[in-house]
C-alpha cells in the first residue's frame, strides 16, 4: 500500500480527491456537507501556528482513503489531532483504516508526541473501529439542529425579553466578518474563557494572544466563512463579558448556518447573558441570512448549562459523538 504525502503548498488533485473521499465517507450523516475550502482549511491550516500534514491512498487513480494530522505548537505539544481518518465505504474492511492509523501513530512518535486524539461517532462502526484499536472515549459530544423554518419565534422573543430583564448593566456589540483590531484583546479573553468548557482528559488549555486571534480571523475570510459575532460588555467599566458567533460557508450556500463559540466569563455568569447573546445573535442572523433554513451546533454532553440554553431555544438532537484518545 502506497500512502502518499500531500504537498499542502501545491496539493494538486490529491487534496480535492481526499475531500471527495470525505464526502463519501460521511454521506450517511445528517447535517451540512463540508465544502472544499472548509475541508482545505481543516486539513492544511488548522489553528494558526500549528503544523499540518495530510496523507492519501490512491487506487486506480482515485483517492480511496487518507487522513490529516494537526500538531499543535502553541500548546498541547504532547499530542496530535486526526483531521480526520477516513476510508471510502466501498473500500472498507480491507485494512486501509488500520494501516493509516498505524502510519499516523508512527508520524506522531516521530514528532516526539505520545497522544493521538480524534472525533468520531459514538456508535458502530466508527466506535467499534476505535475501541478495537485501543482508543478510549474521553468526552461525549452531541450535534443538535435548530430548524429556522419551524422555530417558535414568538417564544424566542419572549425568552429574550425575560433574559434581558436579568441582564441589566450590559450592552451588546455586533459585527460581520473579521473583528476589528481594537477587539482583539477582548477576543483573547473570550477564547481563553472557552477553556472552561468540558474537555478531554490529558488535553491542556489552549493559549491565545492577539496575533493568533488576527490569524484566525483572517483564515475565516480566506476560506469563505462569513461570521456574525456578538459581544456582551459591562456598562460600568466596559469589561468584555461574553461572546457568540454563527457563520455561513459562502463556498456552499446549502441553507445551513453553523453555530461556533459561545462563552460567558466566570465573573459575569448568573445574568442570563448566554441566553441573551445566543437569541439576540440568532434573531440578527435570521434577518441578515433569510435563505438559511437550519443551524447546527456541537456541545459536550456534560455541558449542562449550554445544553439547557440550546434545548430551550428548540435545538433537537441529531447524533452523538466521542472525543477519542490513543496513547502511542
TrEMBL record:
The keyword Nucleotide-binding does not apply. It comes from the Bacteria. Residues 1-150 form the N-acetyltransferase domain. It holds the Pfam family Acetyltransf_1. Keywords: Acyltransferase, Transferase. PANTHER family: AMINOALKYLPHOSPHONATE N-ACETYLTRANSFERASE-RELATED-RELATED. This is GNAT superfamily N-acetyltransferase.
Amino acid at each position: 500500500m502506497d500512502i502518499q504525502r500531500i504537498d499542502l503548498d501545491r496539493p494538486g488533485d490529491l487534496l480535492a480527491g481526499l475531500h471527495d473521499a470525505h464526502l463519501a465517507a460521511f454521506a450517511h450523516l445528517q447535517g451540512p456537507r463540508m465544502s472544499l475550502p472548509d475541508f482545505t482549511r481543516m486539513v492544511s491550516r488548522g489553528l494558526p501556528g500549528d503544523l499540518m500534514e495530510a496523507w492519501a491512498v490512491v487506487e486506480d487513480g482515485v483517492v480511496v482513503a487518507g487522513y490529516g494530522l494537526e500538531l499543535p505548537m502553541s500548546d498541547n505539544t504532547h499530542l496530535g489531532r486526526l483531521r480526520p481518518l477516513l476510508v471510502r465505504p466501498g473500500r472498507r474492511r480491507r485494512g486501509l483504516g488500520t494501516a493509516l492509523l498505524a502510519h499516523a501513530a508512527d508520524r506522531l512518535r516521530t514528532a516526539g508526541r505520545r497522544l493521538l486524539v480524534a472525533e468520531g461517532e459514538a456508535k458502530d462502526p466508527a466506535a467499534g473501529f476505535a475501541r478495537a484499536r485501543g482508543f478510549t472515549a474521553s468526552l461525549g459530544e452531541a450535534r443538535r439542529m435548530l430548524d429556522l423554518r419551524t422555530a417558535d419565534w414568538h417564544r424566542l422573543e419572549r425568552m429574550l425579553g425575560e433574559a434581558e430583564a436579568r441582564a441589566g448593566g450590559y450592552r451588546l456589540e455586533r459585527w460581520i466578518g473579521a473583528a476589528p483590531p481594537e477587539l482583539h484583546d477582548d477576543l483573547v479573553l473570550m477564547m481563553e474563557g472557552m477553556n472552561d468548557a468540558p474537555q478531554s482528559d490529558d488535553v491542556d488549555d489552549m493559549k491565545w494572544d492577539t496575533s493568533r486571534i488576527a490569524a484566525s480571523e483572517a483564515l475565516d475570510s480566506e476560506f469563505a466563512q462569513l461570521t456574525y459575532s456578538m459581544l456582551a460588555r459591562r456598562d460600568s467599566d466596559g469589561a468584555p463579558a461574553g461572546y457568540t458567533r454563527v457563520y455561513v460557508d459562502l463556498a456552499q450556500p446549502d441553507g445551513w448556518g453553523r453555530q461556533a463559540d459561545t462563552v460567558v466569563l466566570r465573573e459575569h455568569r448568573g445574568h442570563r447573558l448566554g441566553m441573551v447573546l445566543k437569541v439576540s445573535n440568532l434573531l440578527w442572523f435570521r434577518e441578515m441570512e433569510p435563505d438559511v433554513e437550519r443551524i447546527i451546533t456541537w456541545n459536550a454532553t456534560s455541558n449542562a448549562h449550554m445544553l439547557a440554553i440550546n434545548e430551550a431555544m428548540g435545538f433537537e438532537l441529531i447524533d452523538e459523538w466521542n472525543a477519542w484518545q490513543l496513547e502511542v
